[in-house]
Amino acid sequence: MAAPLTLLLVVAVTIRAALFRSSLADLIAERVEVVSPLNAWKRVVEGLALLDLGISPYSGDVFHETPLIIYLFHFLVDYAEITFMVSRKFVSSFRKQKYALEADRYPLDCLELIRSPKEMYYIPLKVAMFYLLNPFTILSCVAKSTCGLNNAVIALFILCTIKGSALLSAIFLALATYQSVYPLTLFAPALLYLLQRLYIPVNIRRPSFWWYTLQYAFMYLGSLFVIICLSFFLLGTWDFLPSVYGFILSVPDLTPNIGLFWYFFAEMFEHFRLFFLCVFQINVFFYTIPLSIKLKEHPVFLIFMQLAVISIFKSYPTVGDIALYLAFLPVWSHLYRFLRNVFLVSCVLLACSALFPVLWHLWIYAGSANSNFYYAITLLFNVAQILLVSDYFYAYLRREYHLTHGLYLKRKDGSEATLVLK
Amino acid sequence: MKVQGLTIQENNMGLLSDPNRRRALISMLTRLNAPICVVCYMAGVAWFMGLAFEPFTLRTYMSENAMGSTMVEERFPAGERALATGREFAAHKKKVGGMPVDWLVKTMQSQGLEVFTQRFSRTLPFPDENKERYVVEGTNVYGILRAPRAPRTEALVLSAPCSPGNNNNQAVGLLLGLSQYFRNQIYWAKDIIFLVNEHDLIGMQAWLEGYHHTNTTGMDWSPLQGRGGSIQAALSLELSSDVITSLDLVLEGLNGQLPNLDLANLFYAFCQKIGVLCTIQGKLQRDDWDTASGYSHAVQTMMLMVLKQASGRPWGDHGLFLRYHIEAASIKGINSFRQYKTDATTIGRLLEGMFRKLNNLLERLHQSYFFYLMPSLSRFVSIGYYMPAFGLLAVILLLRALDLWVQLSALPSRTEDGIADIEQSGPGVLSVLTPLVISHLTGVALYTLPIRSQEMAVEHFPVFETEAVVLTAIAIYTAGLALPHNTHRLVSGEGTEQGWRVLKLVAVLYLAVLLGCTALINFSLGFILALTLVPLAAFITPHVPKLLSALFMVLLSPGCTLFFSIFFFQELQETPVNLQEGWVLFLSVISQGILDHSLYGSLVYPLVALLVYPCWLLFWNILFWK
């Protein structure tokens, strides 16, 4: 187990180092698919320069990272490249432990649907491989997008949650929320998981449920409060609140990216803006409620679903965010037989990834295509992602159904039945 | 019966979610796969041939309001004087033995233009035998006529190349005549830049890079001392005789980029107005579209455009402007044996009219089409009409991929989750990865080695540098056929049935994405490659007769496609060549392709070497799968 993982790490680091040194690095760092106004390295450098000059990094419209990041890099700026690589390594190694732990969870299930221990054994390696060798991750690492750090924080949060450490989980969740607001929706699955671990039933009439929820919420909000106050004391001003969270929530920067916001808000009349802003942002948070009710028994899958929803509907998505939830796919390899659209979805994702730079070239450089072409691909890309996620959701539910009802269903009259999602 | 959102019953929710219909559709697609593919291929080719049929094309029309309704008068009187200036230019050119910089500067200055020069130098990666140059040094001379009527934020360019020998003297003469005439008019709202560039495209590249402060190809040039506004449109003039019979419009630019169709419309409208014969691809348009010869004439014109566009090289000095968002075209004067001749005054009036209309532009040309093919100068086919032809070819690849996918999931080892899957995936991944890596490394060798190893080749073999480069490229290309098809066995032992299917699935999807992207940027190149590569990708398996299929594959490989295209192109241009000349031409085209890449950044050579050829090698690998 350790040897292939080490080999994998060496390969992954080599690829990144080679790309860092090549002339491609500058090109990749400029790609709108890879960096967003939030996490572009160029902007972080600008923020650092402003900080060194004694000017608030948020005075201007360039820097939108959180204060802790800037202080972190303030000390690390010379070793920035190494930092990025190290953060990748953290992500993978913690992932590995996480799934080694998670492996204990499943063999409760019976039938031929359960995964054999041998297969479970490989899952952490597969996850690490999916993350480290995913071209999306490589691109966003070479572009030195700070997205890698966000992913690392979220991975640490998942690890701590699964280990059952409520305090650490709350702290990392607070850090992730502090970085980009949206991980707020991961509060529900984390809570559900911790409750499940302690055998506390999710029942609103039970005081123990409320007591634990309050405890966890207090830890979460407390650490969030501490982090924000820390930022204030470091910086001496509240400038960062509008500049970071206002920027995320009100979407003033309409640079094209792989998300759904830019085209829509560029086309819209100004007086509808607030309304649609609310609709679009609520969209990200809203799915938490139905999904939490539906998947309250399966919080780990809920985390996956939430991550996917966030990375599809967030205001400034990059390929790094997508890589995070794609890395979870090997965990659900037992759902493979119930998936229906894998071929279609993977073809579309593949084609879209290739078409992004081509249509960008035609639009921006050749001037012969226009933004509609690019947005069409963005739309297709997101539809494919939604199809992928809903396919996994369907497969998960169907597996649960088969676990309780047996694999080969018979209709009342004895003929073979088919399952249909309604 | 409703449990966890799933119900057991049949219903009709649509194709994707109803399992019965899906199964029916998929089984139909796999059962009828081969016939559907054949039908699609024939339909694609038929659609493409139909594009030249006149009832299926659209008549060109001026979309840009600023150029359509406004009337301009053409009054340019001084054709004879322009020709005299041209003769003077020729005399000075002969005396200096190159570009008569001082004379040009003096002449332009005497007309009241702001005149500047730009020096540039460039060492080619290897000698260019067509144009006999290796170390290129030259000077561009340009004069700016400042717009009297508006803030000087926009500009138009008229350029004429200073060519070696007796070519294009009249073009420079006419350019100088027009500049003198334009100087005295008061209606200019855009700066007009008169550019005489030396060493054709190299000079143009230096000037454009200097103008836009970029340096993409590592050329040495002195910075420009004077600039106009942002350039809106450019015309390049080529004229080698005092009188002409017709004017030819050249549109194809770098990487198959085309200017906005309105520029072609403008040219056509003025030719109609002034009464000059105009051609595209050197072909006049005919009215008898309903006869066989009329149709074949239109097909020939369109095929010439397709072949020129697919080559990805700039076919006139205008070709490099397009990269900077500047709509540009070349106008070539042709003097043939026709009775009816047009004099320089008329050409001058035509150019004056075009410039006055361009001068009226309020924004960049963007109303009309950027993606089009022209079966004649007054007819065009837009992207919406020609893309289905490519789509029908591309859908074959997707159908084959679907077929392979179904076959793969039907194989027993894949459907069972568990130990079998893990054990399969190890060699499975390797057996796909090895050919992929090896064929791409061959591609990288094909891309880098020819230029790098020329010195060594010249040392050891009795060849010139240019020949060395081309022959190295051909040698690597051929060596690639011998290399990879045995390698996967070293790593993974015996190849399995499943192994080649996975490899083919990867290769087919790879080809589909590759061709799709190519066709978006350069439709002609994508279509020609699809025409040859798709049938090969569709039928290749390890079980077809080896020798015959190998021959077939080699004939359809990208290199041979180029070879046939050359013969076809010569045939269409009515200058057929025999095998010997064709081979010489083939060699020179390869060297031109490599030169175009390193001089101007044309993408065809790297595309073929780094992506298309490796992809073809993957299919070659499948054929010899053991």
Topology:
The complex is a heterodimer of chains A (422) and B (626).
Chain A: H1 2-21, H2 24-29, H3 41-52, H4 67-76, H5 80-102, H6 117-132, H7 135-142, H8 147-163, H9 166-180, H10 187-197, H11 207-235, H12 240-250, H13 261-267, H14 273-286, H15 288-294, H16 299-313, H17 319-326, H18 342-366, H19 371-405, E1 419-421
Chain B: E1 2-3, E2 6-8, H1 19-31, H2 33-50, E3 58-59, H3 65-68, H4 79-96, H5 101-110, E4 114-128, E5 133-145, E6 154-162, H6 169-183, E7 191-198, H7 200-212, E8 220-221, E9 230-238, E10 246-250, H8 261-274, E11 277-280, H9 292-311, E12 327-334, H10 344-359, E13 372-376, E14 379-382, H11 383-410, H12 412-415, H13 419-452, H14 454-460, H15 465-482, H16 487-492, H17 497-521, H18 523-539, H19 546-555, H20 558-572, H21 579-600, H22 604-623
Parallel strand pairs in B: 6-7, 6-9, 9-12, 10-11
Antiparallel strand pairs in B: 1-2, 3-14, 4-5, 4-8, 5-7, 10-12, 13-14
Helix pairs in contact in B: 2-11, 4-6, 4-10, 6-10, 8-10, 9-18, 11-17, 11-18, 13-15, 13-17, 13-22, 14-15, 15-21, 17-18, 17-22, 20-21
What are the salient characteristics of this protein?
heterodimer, A: 422 residues, mainly alpha, 2 domains, 19 helices, 1% strand, B: 626 residues, alpha/beta, nine-stranded mixed sheet, three-stranded antiparallel sheet, 22 helices, 14 strands, globular, disordered N terminus, GPI-anchor biosynthesis (chain A), transmembrane (chain A)
